[in-house]
Give the backbone structure.
Amino acid sequence: MAHIMSKPAWAISENQATPQSTFLNRRQLIRNWGYAGLGLAAAVAMRPDRAFAAADRQEDATADLYPAPANPAYVLDRELTPENINSTYNNFYEFGSHKQIWKAAQTLQTSPWDIQIDGMVERPFTIAFDDLVRKLPLEERLYRHRCVEAWSMTIPWTGFSLASLVALAKPLSSAKFVRFETFLDPQVATGQKQNWYPWPYVEGVTIEEAANDLGFMVTGAYGHSLDKQFGAPLRLALPWKYGFKSIKSIRRISFTDTRPVSFWESVGPGEYGFWANVNPGVPHPRWSQKQERVLHSGLYVPTQIFNGYSEQVAHLYKDMQGEKLYT
Ligand SMILES: Nc1nc2c(c(=O)[nH]1)N[C@H]1C(S)=C(S)[C@@H](COP(=O)(O)O)O[C@H]1N2
Ligand SMILES: [Mo]
């Protein structure tokens, strides 16, 4: 990377930028405050317990699919985030807003796992994840990930394109949006007992965005099937958008003519919009988006428009000047 710099004086502190979670009312905020800001130092000091994941993978009916061939079109100009860092620093509010998600998420039962495809499609259907993952060819892509909280990482994801899933679903021409929904099970995901959040987690994209090759349905990372904290068994990766758009542990995919209101948009519409395209020039109301802290190095680097993916996606937004494209 050409412009790596150390932390400038104005850069956000970990405390100032932890907070998708600060949209809670004051009381809930105070309750959570002790956790906000526990960050990388803690995560690195602790060895991730790979035993959890390794045990799961032995029973994994999809294990033979990994590693998948790399797609040479998706490479990076920065080094990959080491797996032990990436898999111990996660946002997955279903399991809380702390940085011990990698432990808490192990309660999620990801097999068997059905995915419902419905709404404006030729014929709605439900498919077992283990069947779906064999219908579409898997490939590995190296992607950037830029959280709205101004940290970033790089991941070798495995999966299939969102566009190929849309083709499988056979949407009607009346469908204008794809809506994704996460599971709902407060007994297992105790974060979902926090009833001030609009569970289940929902996200959405336009049909045009979904047709772009960059949208990726993720089934694995680091050459094996997804660990639970990453959003097993199936999550989205939309690398040109802020990380909250990349919804985890998807149960339902619906085609609709109504723009979905996503989880963070309903929590804080002034801070988290529908489009959420990465743009260093448009600050979050409470912090700058000019730079990002690279998770594994701790260094601050300049953020790029569309997170570096302009060539692939900028054209999608050419005629949308009236929209809040970068919030
Ligand atoms: N269901 C669900 N999906 C989610 C989230 C979440 O809390 N719940 N957090 C989002 C946010 S804010 C980010 S930055 C990424 C984090 O992905 P990672 O933990 O794999 O880094 O997941 C996104 N997808
Ligand atoms: Mo995020």
Residues 45 and 85 are 10 Å apart (CA to CA). Residues 1-12, 23-51 have pLDDT under 50 and may be disordered.
